[in-house]
Amino acid sequence: MKSTVTELDVKGKEAKAASKNLAFLDTETKNKALLNIADALMSRHEEILAANKLDYKEAEASGMNAAMLDRLRLSASRLEGIAKDVRTVAALPDPVGEIIEERILPNSLQLIKKRVPLGVIGAIYESRPNVTVDIAVLCLKAGNAVILRGGKETLRSNMALAKVIQEAAYKAGIPQGAIQLIESTDRALVNHMLKMKEVIDLLIPRGGAGLIKFITENAAMPVVAGGIGVCHTYVDKDADLKKAVDIVYNAKVQRPTVCNALDTILVHTSIAERFLPIIAQELAKAGVEMHCDKRSLAILKPIPSLKLVPANEADWGKEFLALIAAIKVVDSLDEALEHIERYGSGHSEAIITENKIAASRFLNEADAACVYANASTRFTDGSQFGLGAEIGISTQKFHARGPMALREITTYKWIIIGNGQVRP
Amino acid sequence: MKSTVTELDVKGKEAKAASKNLAFLDTETKNKALLNIADALMSRHEEILAANKLDYKEAEASGMNAAMLDRLRLSASRLEGIAKDVRTVAALPDPVGEIIEERILPNSLQLIKKRVPLGVIGAIYESRPNVTVDIAVLCLKAGNAVILRGGKETLRSNMALAKVIQEAAYKAGIPQGAIQLIESTDRALVNHMLKMKEVIDLLIPRGGAGLIKFITENAAMPVVAGGIGVCHTYVDKDADLKKAVDIVYNAKVQRPTVCNALDTILVHTSIAERFLPIIAQELAKAGVEMHCDKRSLAILKPIPSLKLVPANEADWGKEFLALIAAIKVVDSLDEALEHIERYGSGHSEAIITENKIAASRFLNEADAACVYANASTRFTDGSQFGLGAEIGISTQKFHARGPMALREITTYKWIIIGNGQVRP
Questions:
Q1: What confidence tens digit (pLDDT) does each residue in A201-224 have?
Q2: CATH assignment at residue A101
Q3: Same structural domain for residues A411 and A339?
Q4: A188 assigned to some structural domain
Q5: Quick one: DSSP state of residue B223?
Q6: Who among A243, A402, A419 is closest to B414 (CB)?
Q7: What ipTM was reported for this prediction?
């Protein structure tokens, strides 16, 4: 059950060797493997759930909180959901082989820019065991081998899931070794993984800010960092207040523990006295605690039954991942943009306004992966965007930005077909 | 004339501030600035050439070799060529604002994937002063501010060029501070630049293997590494020998000092005895020294007047940048592919064959930015590919691969326009 550095090197070699064949595998075989995986997740649910039960009991005994325990837990119906997602990926177009550009040069050279897999993708993630399946399946579909390293709380679940996935995939013709799981929680193996740049073409960390920071700073290979969302919604002076209330409420309350949930409400001073009392009472009904700047506090203080806390500097730029919202009154769109520039994480930012010029300025100038006018930031999601799936959300500008799906884990090559051409 | 770390931080702040405005500058203004720069390079050639003359004299006195001296030297006609290249970039389509994807989601949200500048680009390069102009102009056109750090041999030339470019650009409406040159050769400033990840969104190193390696390993921000080309041409058993001779000769001799020039010839054993004597005599006429494996040496030894050297392990995977070619006889396409896999740098690889299956296998399986059938690897170049220009050639798989032009120094953002949508 323990993996060593040597074993990890072997896994790396196997993954790299498998990736060479996987890159040329036909779409049909890959899809068949994915459907096999979906079936196996259902038919072998007992062994998966048994492993998950052991993880759950251990986590419970260690005092894990209810929300985390719930994230860890698998059930027959959750497995059904995961299997359904696998079928969705099987139905997506194969990104590999896509002709991105093609032209005939004046000297008759045929130039083709063609999408190809990256090679081997490493994933280091925490908690939810469904991530094991999601990432493995997206990597396979895009022709990449994968080396997975999940959280220690879900090691048994991940091992059971990986076993089911591997057997189902290899039986359907996926090259042996294409799916690797590090069967150990030894941190030394993570450190070793970060140095395996000859093997791993791209590393995807998913988890808390600490994990992301550690990996970004220490990985020798390219990393797509993301998942940290300090999301602002700016309610402009020309906002439709009904829309503003609905959107802010949804962005904060619908699922507060995820990266695209609202953290800070910025309100234009000219509508703050009308808007804040309405939204604050709505948010209070959902149990939201509000961390208010001086001006918003002055407006909200007279209203009974609100959970108000005076905001301090640490509230700005904080990803709450909980039923907490920071509130600040601003004097202008410019001040809102400056606040976002300073405290945003480049994830998702929204403006609520009926003013087209203000909307256009915000959409252009807010420097984030996803910028919204009159909609909830909760839509930042590969499935919601119609990409069919999501391997993560990038908050960097390099390679991929925002929701990452199949195309975002590929690269391209230039193919040049000639008939004896030489450069004059 | 000396810059300090503090001054570099100021330049960084200025560049970042300028990039915010530059990102929204209209195409017309940017093009006007580029044409202004082209004109100024011509009208102010005297001050540029005077500065270059000082660099040249100092380099000459220090014992720089003739090839390097020639790379360093500017002349009125070379400036004319540089100005012409600037006009070419002005005529290229503006990548900024390009709609990469657009769709209406089932809930009526309008989703737009739009190309935007990266922000601030850093460039660290050696030798040729025209790189100062090339990079500055490509960055401006793509809406990016730029921080340039050229080689110490061309400091005076770069300072003169930067002054001319800055004045011409700012007069035409480019935001002040968008073009920054580090006016010092202090290595401490390079080290500091590598840490400025809050300011520099992408770092482009151009130069020798040592520089590239140092920057890749030490930069805190994303780097597009490239420029190291260990290029193979594989002459297959089904090669048209006339084409093979023309292409190999061109790839090795036409400009041996550049990254897309041929380094190693791989020859299928079944045609080695016919092909090698012909190409070797042609290459010998051009003064090419041949580092031969045992089998090719046995074939070529009887021929008089060839510069033959027995190859050693260090010859495989070596970028010669000179009139030297390594030669190896292989037993199969597979052996050629294995050799390339082991020793290639992921830059440009070619097969010469009339056999479509062999060509197709090579084009698919050789893992490089550019793969050729029946053409010279010398075509790996932004201008040759019809991209209009080139800021470098990436040999990595991440973000951009092969010749990088305007699009490759941009990113994108997702713009979502709603009418009150919330996530159910």
A1: 999 998 888 899 899 889 999 999
A2: 3.40.605.10
A3: no
A4: yes
A5: B
A6: A402
A7: 0.94
